[in-house]
Amino acid sequence: MSQATFHAPRRKRKVYESYESPFPIPLSHDCFMKDFRICKGEVINNNVIVRDMEDIELLYGKGYFGKGILSRSRPEYNITQEEIRGRWKDPKIKLPIISSSKYQHHVEWARELLQGQGMDSKSINKILENYTSPISLPEEEKTINLEDSIDNQQPESAGKLSSTNKDHMAREGNPEYDPLSKYGPEDPEDNQTCTEIDQEALEKMHCHRHDDLIKHCGCKPKKQTDSEGRSFLEKMGNEYVMVEEETAPEAEETEQERCERKKLKLVCRRNPFRIFEYLQLSHEEAFFLVYALGCLSITYKKEPLTILKLWEMFSAAQKNFNTRYMAYHHFRSKGWVPKVGLKYGTDLLLYRKGPPFYHASYSIIVELVDENFEGPALRPLTWRSLSGLNRTTMNVSKELLICYLIKPPGFTEKDMGTPECIKKFKVQAIIVNRWISSRERMEHEEL
Fold it and tell me: For position 303, what pLDDT does the model report?
């Protein structure tokens, strides 16, 4: 039998984030009570969804659990069109900026939704007209010309703010000039309603980033603010947007002059159709967070589910969930970040640290066997299918790994009914390598 060679994982070229250890375990009871948080999820159509933004950031930021339903992986979907925001360097109100055509799509989606409720066209038009009408702003801030926005930009080396920017900073957040200021976040530096941090509490505050007390590592503690101080976008769900529109043509202006002028403006309007980003967890990820870490509570139709009920529900919804979870639990405990391997025809993919840092190193196939490595195959593989799967895995710079779950003697199917069976299994992993006769002959000749 040839010995497998372990290769270093392939690191991604551009990484724009720092690594944080997944869910550090507090060493004291005081730290546990202060820092421990139970996230909330719910089962919708056999999928586990997390809605709260703080829970989403915690679960994905500490362990890369789940994926965004509107994003490729990281739940970072944003309604703002970056190419348009790039043109407006200094918008007056920090709200999402979208084009007029995209805003019209949202209006049409809202119209279809109202039509589905049986409303007549006249009522729908009146509702949308009133809802999407421009929000009144002071005359100075009602229209922002693109040319003026670019011309007023000062280089960073100047070290001074223009009078326009100073005037904007004085007015932004002032209810007299800004009708949306009551929804905006409060500045912790200027706001006197922020709760001052007690010095005695500061001495005991723990920093998870450096695994030390804050007074030793030098990090600044976050000030606790009132619930009204939450971000405007988080509270309102992108209810208000800035729409990029063309200014009205002048009376004596020709079509050619209008095309050459291209004066644009930003108009604040209500968003009639809001799209929310949620975090979707696989069954293995959700059960690991509930069973192994105890940091997730899952409900179904507003009723909390126990660990045993979750095991039964996931086993009924997903074939071979119990065996796949055992493999997931094993590799998660070893420090890997497992993800669903459906796109490569396997059960799991293993990442070192997480998808932002490295490409997946291994594609996992899970098999259930007895002590003699015998038993009905969960995934029937012929030599041809195994060779094809191995070639596919090699073409994407990964290695194929077969994870054998070894059940104890006398183990029956009934024993799989509870998660207590996890403690009785042993795990052995074997890397599948393509055997090349010429390479094997050369190695023997060198010896």
Answer: 93
